[in-house]
Amino acid sequence: MRIGELARRTGATPRALRYYEEQGLLTPERRPSGYREYGEPDVATVHGIRTLLAAGLNSAVIAEILPGLPPPGSRRPGPTCPELLAGLAAERARITRQMDELAAARELLDAIMGADAPSSVILAGREPAGPSAGPAARSSAGPAAGPSVRADPAGRKLDGARSRAVLE
């Protein structure tokens, strides 16, 4: 199959496929005309490359991993080179940390979005009048109250103006 067909079947762009070739991740046959010719195993290889890229591995790391993996479809994927295990374990730990950070960020966003009338607090740039105050009390905070400055869970200072700019 030619590069356009491989791109269609894998979701990769032809440019990405040429990049994978430059990086030594794909080795298509060349026709006498110079056209690249890909085989059926290249479809699985590209899917694997894209999965590893999505996991945050760079092309240099992927180039080290690919030769140690069995050919697609031959058996359950796993390293055939024991030397790769330490590097793979480090990458897995990095991905797990990143997932934990993303989960914490999602929880923070859920808490903000689930707050009682969060938009009035954000748009006014002021703290609510008190924990028992309802939406009406929160929106009645006058200009004399001044902008609120509070710390987010990461310890950074947030003020109403910056919060509005981030959300707009």
Write the layout of secondary structure elements.
Blueprint lengths: L2 H8 L3 H9 L6 E2 L5 E2 L2 H15 L4 H7 L18 H31 L3 H7 L10 H5 L9 E3 L5 E3 H8 L1
Antiparallel strand pairs: 1-2, 3-4
Helix pairs in contact: 6-8
Structure description:
The protein is mainly alpha-helical. 54% of the residues lie in helices and 6% in strands. The chain has helices at 3-10, 14-22, 40-54, 59-65, 84-114, 118-124, 135-139, 160-167, and strands at residues 29-30, 36-37, 149-151, 157-159. The strands form 2 sheets. It has a two-stranded antiparallel sheet. Strands 3-4 form a two-stranded antiparallel ribbon. Strand 1 and strand 2 (36-37) form a beta hairpin. The longest helix is centred in the middle third of the chain and has 31 residues, at 84-114. 11% of the residues are buried.
Please describe the structure with a list of short key phrases separated by commas or semicolons.
disordered C terminus, mainly alpha, 54% helix, two-stranded antiparallel sheet, 168 residues
Q: Low-confidence parts, pLDDT < 50 over ≥5 residues?
A: 133-151, 162-166
Total count of strands: 4
Rg over CA atoms:
26 Å
The separation of the N and C termini measures 46 Å
Number of helices: 8
Strand order of the largest sheet: 1-2
Largest sheet: 2 strands, antiparallel
Run of helices and strands: HHEEHHHHHEEH
Structural class: mainly alpha
